[in-house]
Design goal:
- By secondary structure, the protein is α/β, with parallel strands linked by helices.
- It folds into 2 domains: 67 residues, LysM domain (Membrane-bound Lytic Murein Transglycosylase D, Chain A), CATH 3.10.350; 205 residues, Rossmann fold (3-Layer(aba) Sandwich), CATH 3.40.50.
- The chain is 31% helix and 21% strand.
- The strands form 3 sheets. Strands 3, 4, 5, 8, 9 and 10 form a 6-stranded mixed beta sheet that branches. A two-stranded antiparallel ribbon has the order 1-2. A two-stranded antiparallel ribbon has the order 6-7.
- Strand 9 and strand 10 form a beta hairpin.
- Helix 5 packs across helix 6 and helix 6 runs parallel beside helix 10.
- The longest helix is centred in the N-terminal third of the chain and has 22 residues.
- It is globular.
Length: 363
């Protein structure tokens, strides 16, 4: 009897310890390149909501390409994920092999997947499988989105207000796929990080206003802003008459020679992603602004004003050197509030101007 009670208590303690370990959240590493949670010796894992191949490979300390290959590049909630080659082989042996028949149709041809489509990526994109130069795109932190027009855009587009920001963020991110490069997106697709992982990545960055730096690869001429308005006309007349030039302080945020730039605080950031993916260039979208200029009325009868979209970005190479830091300004009419129209009219040009600061894929 005592033996039975002792055995039961032992099992109860084991079950309690197991439940406690499962319930405790895994602690995130303090820096990006620290080792992920060690494998627990399990051969299979049940896929949960929010899991990605990237996060699971780090959690179980398994190479990303191996984990994808063992599971045929599929990842769905509730799926049994094989964590080693032996587990995958044992299941394949257990399955009866289908016998070929004369009436069996020929297999459909394989359709190649575009190299810059992260949402449909079917091939491993680790550093070992690199065939092209690679760009990693880091979307703007949702906290660095500022807009005074979301209510109007949401009402016209018949979507929740918070979705306006998501549309702008997701669409600009998707369009940042330079021709001739292989693009690694951290937002969307097989390599999509969970929200917590992207938040952790943002914590390794810092932001401040910096002098604009145009890339040596960008051959577009610098457009100088034309002065205009009554105050500028008065100032020019004073200068002609020999009067002293009045100087007005310009806030850093409005200074055309400044942009909201990013700096990487974590010293292991570049080495981590270079080793993980074989990245050549990093494109950071730092801040996205939408502002209506009520001082510039395009049509007073229709209450149509000038609206401005401002995108701040930074580009680094894989050595951690700043290649380009700048901002893009795009004007739009405030009466055009359909979010799809705004995206189609402006986002491709925004993405093109950012990517023009990258070298061509042939360089």
């Amino acid at each position: 009897m005592k033996a039975i009670v002792k055995y039961a208590l032992t099992n109860l303690i084991f079950v309690f310890a197991f439940i406690t370990a499962e319930a405790a959240p895994a602690a995130w590493p303090t820096t990006i390149n620290q080792h992920a949670i060690a494998a627990q010796g399990d051969s299979v894992y049940l896929v949960q909501q929010g899991d990605t191949y990237y996060s699971l490979s780090r959690r179980f300390n398994i190479p990303l390409d191996s984990l994808q290959k063992w599971n045929e590049y599929k990842l769905q909630i509730g799926q049994t994920l094989y964590l080693n080659r032996k587990a995958m082989a044992s299941v394949q042996v257990a399955k009866p092999k289908p016998q070929p028949t004369a009436a069996k149709a020929a297999p459909a041809p394989t359709v190649p997947v575009a190299s810059n489509s992260a949402s449909r990526a079917a091939a491993p994109r680790t550093a070992e499988h690199k065939t092209k130069s690679r760009v990693m795109v880091i979307p703007f932190d949702p906290y660095l989105y500022f807009s005074d027009a979301d209510d109007e855009i949401a009402k016209k587009s018949k979507i929740p207000r918070q979705n306006v920001r998501h549309v702008f963020r997701n669409r600009l991110n998707a369009l940042l796929a330079p021709e001739g490069y292989e693009t690694i997106h951290l937002l969307g697709g097989v390599y999509r990080d969970s929200v917590s992982e992207l938040s952790r990545l943002y914590k390794s960055l810092s932001y401040n206003y910096q002098d604009n730096k145009q890339s040596k690869y960008n051959n577009q001429p610098v457009v100088k802003e034309e002065k205009g308005g009554a105050l500028d006309w008065v100032q020019r007349q004073k200068e002609k008459l020999g009067g002293e030039k009045e100087t007005q302080p310009v806030s850093v945020a409005k200074d055309p020679t400044k942009h909201f730039g990013v700096k990487v605080k974590d010293p292991n950031f570049f080495s981590y992603f270079n080793n993980q993916y074989g990245i050549d260039y990093y494109v950071f979208i730092n801040q996205f602004e939408v502002k209506t200029n009520y001082e510039n009325c395009l049509d007073r009868a229709a209450l149509n004003y000038e609206r401005n979209f401002l995108v701040h970005y930074s580009i680094y190479n894989n050595k951690g050197e700043l290649v380009s830091g700048n901002k893009i300004s795009v004007d739009y009419e405030s009466n055009m509030n359909d979010v799809q129209r705004i995206v189609s009219d402006n986002m491709p040009a925004m993405a093109k101007r950012v990517l023009s600061d990258l070298p061509s894929s042939g360089k």
